[in-house]
Amino acid sequence: MLKINNLHASVEDKAILKGINLEVKPGEVHAIMGPNGSGKSTLSSVIAGKEEYEVTDGEIFFDEENIEELSAEERAHKGIFLSFQYPVEIPGVSVTNFIKTAINETRKAKGLPDMPANEMLKLIREKSELLEIDRKFLSRSLNQGFSGGEKKRNEIFQMAMLEPKLAILDETDSGLDIDALRIVASGVNKLKSKDNAVVLITHYQRLLDYIVPDFVHVLYNGRIVKSGGKELAHELEEKGYDWIKEEVNA
Amino acid sequence: MQYTNNTRQMDLKEKLVSSFMAFENRIDVDAPVHEIRNEAIKIFETNGFPTKKDEAWKYTSLNSVLKKDYSVFPKHENALEFSEVKSYMLHEMDTYKIIFIDGKYSSHLSQTTHDGFDVCLMSSALNNPKYRLVIENYFNKIAEKDGLTSLNTAFATEGAYIHIKKNKLVNKPIQILHFSTGSEEAVMLQPRNLIVVDENSHVQIIERHQSLTDNPVLTNSVTEIFANKRAIVDYYKLQNDNKHASLIDNTFANQKQESHVSVHTFSFGGKLVRNNLHFYQNGERIDSTLNGITIIGDKQHVDHNTLVHHIEPNCESHQDYKGIFADNSTGVFNGRVVVNKEAQKTNAFQSNNNILLSDKATINSKPQLEIFADDVKCSHGCTIGQLDESAMFYMRSRGIPEKEAKALLMYAFSNNVLESVKIPEIKTRITKIIAEKLGVNLGFDL
């Protein structure tokens, strides 16, 4: 589904990703861990198509198509979803209107007509229940004045609405209390299928107790320096990242 | 070049002053307003048109619009069919209509009334003895005595006359519409409106100026609004004219105790638009609202010059102006708030937020607070920025294309001003115009 070859990327001439290789197949859950500043968020932004990042070398394939030239919205239309570490506040646009626009623009790109209003309402009801979201919440301005937990839950709600093939969750666990974490994780688990894939980007192992990864990768200094199964996450939790750094720098 | 401009301006001024004599021959010089007209032409002769040397006109030059050889009295009477102008009117709802074509009243298109209140013509109010008392009490009483307003006072013969008597709730909005047909090569219009709303009454008014051809039009409009005790006046100005039409709108509101007056100014079109909007609070517990959305591009210029004068205690004023400027367009916001020494417990709020969509667009924003009372709450804020890039990426990553994402952000930006519009049909109309301006079709109303 996602295949990244020797990816190099920089922002304002500063190299951040220095040769990433990663393959994600349908039905898989990958966790990318690593110390602060290792390039985790950059990797997710580059996959989602943020223009400030310049790909200087390597390729990203999605469903066997090189997506380098595609805009962020075109990548979204193909089924790539990024849950933001810091979701942006957009005063004046309600959660409902935002998600309606996102869904109908995606449909438009696929040559489909707008989703009928009753179908949309039904979908909104179903997915907001899945994430235990209060209906009143949906008429509020997008992310404005939301608590950290509400913002993240709203991200996963949007993911549930858009049903992407590939969901990249960037530090979705940060700012969540344990109850919110449980709701978000169970939402993600319910949405998982053999046809879609999830990439979890996280600093801590905590989220991985709830969403169990098939593969764990350690990103350090712009490269994936170690890959393994879920036990690697436990090892990192116990020993921290210093041993990895020592291994790499040795 | 400068010399040519000056002579041209001189020409128009002289033409106007000398036209006044010809004008006198056509009107009733014994009418009570004649004295006022005489006075006014003298003021115009002394002051002339404002130049950039005048502090209030520092960022707006009239040079380019004064260069044309305007005809002062349109020669032809022109008619228009409803189908030709329908799209410029709020036609989805029942309204009173006072419609002018090249400055002349069109009875064919209008719907006036004298049933319980007067929604009719300035010309009849100025000439009919029945209205003499109202004219004596209100006409030209709060209009500024500067060159442009005086020019209008000198020549004004036509416009809307609206007098809502005590305890009346006007059951439908009143539309004041001015169309120019372009039958003259260039025309200058001087519409004059008088709106008097007596105790406990409520009225909603919509005003629009629309040119139907590419021939230049310069409109120098004056509107006086008097809101008596506990009156409510909601006034909407829809400015979406073509690129050959310019408008100088001079609107003055005088409020008595506990009255509420709101003026919304939607500036989307025209070559040059200057809005002088001045409020005087003569009573306690008054509420004044001045809101505006400006969205322009190309080489358009829109200047908002507001004044709220707090004269007595316990009053409020709210000003909220949003501007979006593309291409080489220029905007000006000059918001003056004066709080007299006696006007304790005043709450005066002002905000002016702007988005510049191009490197070549400019906005000059100048809040001016003159506060002489010590127990007041006054705030003002001004922002100038670009569209938020992180919000753009966020929206695009959810599948909303760049153009739609931009439009959505701009809608959101101006949304709180739209929210205060009380007539849903106006809101729908404005939303549609904004969508057209931004070239998008969003499948919902904000």
TrEMBL record, chain A:
Domain ABC transporter: 2-246
Keyword ATP-binding: yes
UniProt-listed Gene3D superfamilies: P-loop containing nucleotide triphosphate hydrolases
Keyword Nucleotide-binding: yes
A GO term, aspect molecular function: ATP binding
Family matches, as InterPro entries: AAA+_ATPase, ABC_transporter-like_ATP-bd, FeS-cluster_ATPase_SufC, P-loop_NTPase
A Pfam family recorded for this sequence: ABC_tran
Highest rank taxon of the organism: Bacteria
Alphabetically ordered keywords of this record: ATP-binding, Nucleotide-binding
Signal sequence region: none
NCBIfam families: sufC (TIGR01978)
Family as reported in the entry's similarity comment: Belongs to the ABC transporter superfamily. Ycf16 family.
Protein name: Fe-S cluster assembly ATP-binding protein
Source species: Formosa algae
Automatic annotation (TrEMBL), chain B:
Domain SUF system FeS cluster assembly SufBD N-terminal: 19-176
Coiled-coil annotated spans: none
Chain ranges passing through the membrane: none
GO biological process: iron-sulfur cluster assembly
Stretches assigned to the SUF system FeS cluster assembly SufBD core domain: 184-413
Record-linked Pfam families: SUFBD_core (PF01458), SufBD_N (PF19295)
Signal peptide residues on this chain, from the entry's feature table: none
Membership in a protein family: Belongs to the iron-sulfur cluster assembly SufBD family.
Entries under NCBIfam families matching the protein: sufD
Name this polypeptide is given: Fe-S cluster assembly protein SufD
Organism listed in the record: Formosa algae
